[in-house]
Amino acid sequence: MSDTRNHSKIDAITGLRGLAALLVVYAHSVHWFALPLASNCTGEIGVSVFFALSGFLMAYLYIGKDFSALSVTGYAVHRFSRIAPAYLFIVLLSFIIHTAFYPDFTYAISETNILRHILFSGNVSVFWSITPEVEFYFLFVVVWAATSRYLMRSDITGLVLLTLGCLILMAYRDALPGTFVGAKLHYFLFGVIAGVIRSKIGGQQSRVKSLNFLHAFLVAAMVLGAVVVLTGHGSVILPFADNEAFYSSLLTAVFGAFVVFLFSFSSTVGNFFFANRAIILCGECSFSIYLLHQPIIFFFHKYLPQPLPPIYLVPFLALVFALSWLNYRWIERPGARLIKSIGRVFEQKFVSAQPAATSVQIIESELR
User: Fold this and answer.
1) How many CB atoms within 10 Å of residue 234?
2) Which of 137, 261, 308, 357 is 20 to 30 A from 180, alpha carbon to alpha carbon?
């Protein structure tokens, strides 16, 4: 089954990714800098948005496209190229720093756990969230196969079995390890549902005024919620005892998917907040921001007077953005191009070996 949908780049989605990264940075900064404002689940909110975005984008880009060995190969190459360069660079650099220079380094990657991290299954510091993300990439192939079988043959067996398996995993999510995709599956699945609906709607936006109103209302609610959280009254609107309670909630998963879905439509208000150049740049560098901010906090804390006064937050953020941008430009993008070029060579050989295979056009600009 071919699909000729034209997926245009959604800048607000990139902006949302940038906001999610900034939320995580703020949550970790509060514990190191003498900031007057509290932090209640802000980091968890950021990570949940990341998870919902992954489910949304996978479904939006791939569900309904031809499913074949070649198309799955292309999908795997693009997914690997998106995450591997920056991730493996930081893992190996952290291994060197921890073993050769700073035994107390925030990313305690040593001989005992480096292989686990290289295989994308680590759990040190922020690396824990990469594990369920990568596991979802594998799971999505099953989702893609089941939906493709239904769309092409009206065979619902795969979807029924997949739904049953997901329901079982979600029922036992509190008992599953936090690094296992089953423990965070509800975030990805609600994101997938939002992505499928969004792809069916396409670019139809007949009620721009309604979108502006909805976006304005949601932005106002987010700002009000942030004020309540940062002033130390977060338990009023986020009544979670700890981060495990937050992550196990279905309500937070639905909210994350809803936010991603709603801002995937363009409006004046939405574009002002999430499609401006500054937040888009943060979104483009979001993975580097996510990986690099903790080591920078470590060195600030190690070599500057304690406690760190709030004024140090300014050079800290400047350094985070500068190093993240450099990592994005010199590690992420060149590494992704290299992996994609190798993938294209492999695909060409695969096509010559199996001429009947149908290729899929991958709109990678959505994922950057």
Assistant:
1) 19
2) 261
